[in-house]
Structures are given as structure tokens and as C-alpha cells.
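Homework-ish question, so no full write-ups if that breaks the rules, but can someone show me the predicted structure for this set?
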Amino acid sequence: MRHLLLGTLLIAGTGCSLITVQQEPFSPLEIRADRPPPAPPRVVLTASSITIGEKVQFATGSAEILPVSHGLLDEVAQVLNDNPQIALLQVEGHTDSTGTAAFNRKLSQQRAESVMKYLAGKGVGAGRMQAKGFGPDKPIADNTTDDGKEKNRRVEFNILKQGPKKTVVHDD
Amino acid sequence: MTELRFLAIASTAALGATLAAAACGGTGLGADTRADITARMTSVQQPLAACYHAGLATNRKLAGMMVVSFVAAPQTGQFQEITVTHDELGDPDVRKCVLDEIGKLKLEKPQSARVSISYPIHFAPNQ
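A: Not a homework solution, just the prediction itself:
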């Protein structure tokens, strides 16, 4: 009905000047396109860890988690809630070698605790997690380059203890 | 079922235009003009596929029918007054992209009268 009205208005708007209109509908023009490949998951559960495809972002020199990382941590929490067989997860904080080791260990410990607290707020049992700040002690890249330092500043989630995964079998 | 829906949508639009034209003394499309319009629309299949592909990047489930109405101007055949009268995709960027592409078209054999057209476009992802 709306199309009928639209068609009428279309013609009426021309002031009844000479006009040619279609009387039979056209066959639809078929448009096909490939779906782009799905984005790789940001959070992946492996046998010994939960790996994250992005970094957890903190305010500079602080343990405050930036809002941009909340979605990522929500996904980590979801993985933990979906996998109750993970009995103990170690949330690890790591820094680069800039500054004193003592300060970095303290900051990384505070950041790991901050992440743990956030996850607990999303329903992950606090008893299933522990926080550990390693500071600059476990670098994974060269601390003499900016790129290497960037890689070393990170949060990791390592599974320390887990039971067998329960398999749910549906009747149908 | 989907094709029936296409037909219903396109038929309603075409019927509306026909009734209004009858009231105003308009005439129907000739076979040559219909073929010309179809050829022009078919010529933008690839650009429209690019519009759709861009939309799929943000919504992998994007699919459905869009009906565009437009006028081919007398003498020049330029497609103008292009509007979307039905849109199941609901993606404003895809809609704008489609309108822009159709706005580049013109009939190869322009008519002396304005030609009013309603054209359905069906978007579906490759399996």
C-alpha cells in the first residue's frame, strides 16, 4: 500500500507531464558478494593458558584499567565462566626494563591484582585466581628496542591447575 | 518464498505508478526501454557488489531486498530523483553507496518523456 501511494505521489509530483512508467515489475537484480573472513577470536583458551589477541591497557604508571580493555577482559571472564574446570588461573603482570625493578614489580603486581578484581566483578570466583607481578623479570622480547619494550609490557593468564573438562551430552 | 515477496514488493510499486500514470495519461515502457534499463542496472552489478561487500564487513548477516525508484530524465536519460522505497538491509552506508552508483547511470537511448522506474535489488552473500 505504501508503494502504491508512493507511486501515485511520484507521478502527481510531476504535474502530469508526459511520463512513461513501468507496468510490469523488473526481475530483481541479483547482487552477490563474499563474506569477509571472520575476525580471529581475541581470547583463546589453550591447554595451559588463556591467550589474548590484544593488550590490556592501563593508565600510565597506574593500575587503572582503561575502558578500552573492558570488552577484552569481559571475554576472558566469559571463557573462565564457561570453563569451570579451570581451577586456578594466575594473572601475571609484566613490565619492560625502564625504571627500577622494584617499582616495576610493585606496579605489575598492582596491575595483575586490578585485572583479577575486574574478573571477579564479572562473576569469576576469586578463589580460582591469583595475581603475580613479575616486573621486568620475564621478558619475551629485546628491552633495548621500543618494539621489544612494548611486547614486554603485558598481562598473561596462565592456568596453574585444572580438572577434566565436563562434556555435556544432549539427548537430541 | 523470498521470490514471492520480491514480486509482491515490486508489483505493488509498479501498480502504483501505473494507476497514477493512467490518471495522468501516461504511457507504459516499451520493450526497448525496459531492456535498456535492465542493461544499465546490470552494468553496475560489480560496483553494487562492492557496496554490499563493504557492508558485510561490519555485518556478516547483511542480506535482503532493496527497491530503488528513480526517473530517467527526458532527452538525457540520466537517472535521477533516486530514492529507496524498500530496504531490508537497513545499512545506511550500503544504501548511500547504491544510490551513488545508480546516480551515475543514464539510458543509452533516452526518451522524450520522463521514465519512472522502480527496480528491485536482491543482496545475498556467496555461500
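Now go work out the reasoning yourself. Hint: The first strand of chain B starts at residue 27 and ends at 28.
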